[in-house]
Each structure stands twice: as structure tokens, then as C-alpha cells.
Amino acid sequence: MTLRLALLCLVLALASLAIGPVDLVAIHARDPELARTLFLELRLPRTGLALAIGAGLGGAGAATQALLRNPLASPDVLGPSTGAALGAVLAGYFLGAGVIGMALGGVGGALAALALLLALAGSGAGSPQLILAGVAVATLLGVAINLALSLAPSPFALYDLMTWLMGSLADRTLPQLLLAAPLIGLGLVLLIRSAPALDALALGEEVAQSLGIATASLNRRTIMAVALATGAGVAVAGSIGFIGLVVPHLVRPLTGHRPGAAILPAALAGAALLTAADIAVRLLPVDLKLGVLTALIGAPFFLWLILRGR
Amino acid sequence: MSLAAALLLAAMPMRVVSLNLCTDEYLLVTARPGQIVSISQLGADRQETPLAVRARGLATNNGRLGDVLAQAPDLVLTMGAAPQDAALARRLGVKFVALPYPESPGMVAAQVAQVAALLGNVAAGEAFAADLATLVSTAPAHPKKALMVGGGGLAPAMNGLTAGWLRLAGYTQQQGGPVAMEALLASPPPVLLVSRYRPRQYSQPQAWTQHPALARLPSRRVAVDGRAFLCGGAAMPAEIRRLRAAR
């Protein structure tokens, strides 16, 4: 199944690379150097970032749900995505940080949001506490983004609010891809290495400990990895909702309900879904933010989850 | 002093307030010393208008009518529709003038003349109009095709106020509306007019103008003063002369 998902990613990536306002093949015949620039500087970053960010969100979503033993947990619902956006905004608009500084701000913001969440709810908290604390953290950080953009030196900063809350991959740069992808990749590798331990954690904290798993260190490692997998991506594209929430549920039936084992397929499915959404955004006649489209798909699914669990 | 001059002086508004950057600029080129009570914060901000150097020592306001009433203005200027403010001013008996957004350099000159007349300084309006007439009569005969593109890839309309000023600088705006970066790179304009406005202050539209792919454009690059183009108003004649010299 992993292979099939990887193939799907490949097909979607090729489609994403082929779509654009100009005909790259015709340009290549006329001016190969220009075609190379368009491909490397515009199309490749967009496609690569869709794959990397989607994978990061999908994998981080599966890992958060496994760690917190809660099917409603995900980076966007519980705050790390919003925290990452706030971190990137503070670094970029106030400290004059470049691509690197904003990515680090994103990772730091995601980490701070997760720390705040766990301090508020506790790692073994039940569904209601966790979701309540998460919603509070996400709302607080969202308001903080609004405030930060209002106070930013550039008078146009507030107009960027939509992008930070809804995400976009338009006109991103190669340096952004080259920086975000390795950070997200590192986060995903750390998460996949924790998969067996997270599977054991599904049986309960005591059982996991009796199997020789140091749960406190597993907590720390997973949170760090989730921050890496989401933070750098959000710093580049803004906070994109629902991928981290929906995708783990899509792949879970295929992984025998082992939450840890769902991380890799969720990463692949997240990459496929975000790439597909980014293709759709470009093909639709109206100018929609990427996060609007993922929310349009994700919100009904979220409702269905709640209704089914009632 | 003759009786007529004394009467004129008495009728002249001596406590003038502007609530809007563009009317700030009009005031700064037409008012006599002592006539201005306050202009908006933007009008005194050197990052917002090249005319801010003339605003030294002037009091500023936050652009809201309710907050300048305490300054007891006898004339309040602003730009754009402000129906509630107009109604409030009427009730309080304050003279309130809301100018429409200008659509051409000629309309800017007419508005400068209108403000100058309101201030009792007709000569300042005539001087601005004469300056514009000179710019029109000396406009380059063969304008170059160019594209002025702002943050986020948005280009000013081909027949709007900005394009009207650019024509006087010797450029025709060849495209308006949103410009896709790929399309821009695929068919580069001969001249790319890049707006310099609050450089080094991060925003996403600003980041668009610094995309590394744009550095590969073969177009000749000409920097325009984005502050003057914000209003496309009283600060433009000087900017047009600068652009002509750089052409």
C-alpha cells in the first residue's frame, strides 16, 4: 500500500509540475535556459513544497493522534500549526529574519505551542480536556498572529493574515524548498523511528512502560519531531488545515489500527492530498487559498468523525 | 491693508485639518504658514510621502473626524466617500470637503487648484497646474513599453492614474491587473518599473518583488518612488522629472 501511495504522489507531482500559466515545452524549444529557470525557480519549489508540507502534516497528524491517543488530535486543531505561523511572523516581520530565520521561528513556534498544550492538558489527558486546551491554545495563538501583523512595521502586513491562517504555495522560492524539505524530512524520519514505540503506547502508558519504553523520552522526541515536521512547512506556506486531521483516518483502516504504523502511509497520503489540492487551486476559476480548499474537504469529514463517535 | 484684503483674510480658513494622506499632500503644497492645524500621521511620515519633509513641526491626527473636532477646525479635508463624517460635520457646522479619488494627472491638478482656492491661495493652484502643463508639453514623444508591477504581482491599470503619470515620464504601462510570475518571465517587458516602498520591511507582497526568479529577468529595471505613487498626487511632478532623468 505504501508503494501505491508513493506512486500516486509521483503521478500527482508530475501533474503539478506540468501545470502553469505558460507552456514550458514550447518555451524550451525557443529558450532552454528560460525553461530551466521557470522549472527550477517556480514549478519545482511549488510541487516540492506541496509534497513535503503535505507529508509533514500527514505524518505529524498520525503521530500526534498516536502520542495523545486521541483521534481528534492534529497539528492544526491543537495549535502547533498556528504556533508555527506566529513564530514565523515574529521572525520575519519584526526581526527581519530571512528564509532560514523564519523556518527556525516556525519550528520554535510549533514547539512552544505543543509545550503550552501539554502544560495545560497533561500528556495523558482525556479527549475533552485535550481538545479544549488545544482549541484555547490555537485560538490564542491565532489572535496573537492577528495582533502581531497589526503591529508589524509594514502597513501591508495585516493583509497577509489570510495567507498565514489559510496557507498558499504560490510563487515560493527554491531556497524555501531546500530549507523546509530537509527539516520536514528529519522530523518524519524521527517520527517513523518512534512508530513501534507509539504502537505500544496505544495499549496504555503502563503497558508501554512494561515493554521497556521510556514514555517520557518518547513524549519529548515525538513533540520535537512533530514541531520539525510542521513548523518549517508552516513558516513557508502558512497554516494549512485538516490534512493532519483527516489523512491519518483515511489510512488507518489500511494499517490495522496501529497508530504508529500509520505514520509513513499518512505522510504519503498527506503529500498526495496537498499536491492534489494545490493542483485544484490552480485549475479552479476562482482564486482560493490552499487552506480554504483543504478545509472544504476536511471540515465535513471532521463533522462526520464527531457524529460517528456520538 | 485695504478693506478687500482684510475681508479676504477674514474669510480664509485658518484652522485647516486633513484626515487623509492624499489631501495632506495637497495641503503641504498649497497652504500658507500657520493655516494647517493638523495633517494625518501618514502625511508626516517620511516612509509614506516624499512631501513629509515639508510637514516638520506640524501636529498630526489619526485620520478620524471625531478626534480632530477638539482642534476646532474651520475646514476639514479628506479623500474618498465619507458619508457619516460629512453628516457629522454638517450637524456641527464644520466645513467638510471629501474629494473623490483622482483618475488622471489633470484631475489631480484640478483638485490641487480646488484646495488652493479653499485656502485662499489661488496662486499655489495655478503654479501646480502650470507645472503639470509643462510636464505634458515636454512629455517624451516616443514612450517606451514598460510594466510597473507592485507587491504580489499586481500591476496598475493601463488607463488609470498611475499609467497617466507614467506616460508623462515616457513609459506606457503594457499590462494591468495580476501578473503571473511565470508569464512575466516568459515574455519580459523591455522596462520593468519596480516600486520602492518600505524596503526591508517584510510583507508577502514585498517578498514577491524579491523572488530570486525575477533577478533573471533581462528587462531594464527602473526604480520608482512607491511613496509618491501611493496617492499619485501632489508629489508626482518631482517624481516624473526624476524618472525622465533616469530614462
Question: What does this protein look like?
Answer:
The complex is a heterodimer of chains A (310) and B (247). Chain A is built from 15 helices and no strands. Chain A is mainly alpha-helical and 310 residues long. Chain A has helices at residues 2-18, 24-30, 32-68, 75-78, 80-94, 99-121, 127-151, 161-166, 174-193, 195-201, 205-210, 215-237, 243-251, 263-283, 290-308. Chain A has a single domain (2-309), classed as ABC transporter involved in vitamin B12 uptake, BtuC, CATH 1.10.3470. Chain B has 247 residues and is of the alpha/beta class. In chain B, strands 3-2-1-4-5 form a five-stranded parallel β-sheet, with helices on both faces. A four-stranded parallel β-sheet of chain B has the order 8-6-10-11. A two-stranded antiparallel sheet of chain B has the order 7-9. In chain B, strand 1, helix 2 (21-30) and strand 2 form a beta-alpha-beta unit. Chain A binds chain B through residues 20-22, 27, 34, 37-38, 41-43, 92-93, 96, 152-157, 159-160, 163, 171, 173-175, and chain B through 151, 153, 180-183, 185-186, 198, 200-206, 208, 211-213, 216.
Keywords:
heterodimer, A: 310 residues, ABC transporter involved in vitamin B12 uptake, BtuC, globular, B: 247 residues, alpha/beta, 5-stranded parallel sheet, 11 strands
Oligomer: heterodimer
How can the largest sheet of chain A be summarized?
A: none
- Unreliable stretches of chain B, pLDDT < 50, 5 or more residues? none
Rounded to the nearest angstrom, the distance between the terminal CA atoms of chain A is 31 Å
Uncertain regions spanning at least 5 consecutive residues of chain A: none
Determine the most extensive contact between two protein chains: A-B, 26 and 21 residues
Give the N-to-C terminal Cα separation of chain B.
50 Å
Spatial shape of chain B = globular
The average pLDDT score of chain A comes to: 91
Query: Which fold does the CATH topology of chain A refer to?
Result: ABC transporter involved in vitamin B12 uptake, BtuC
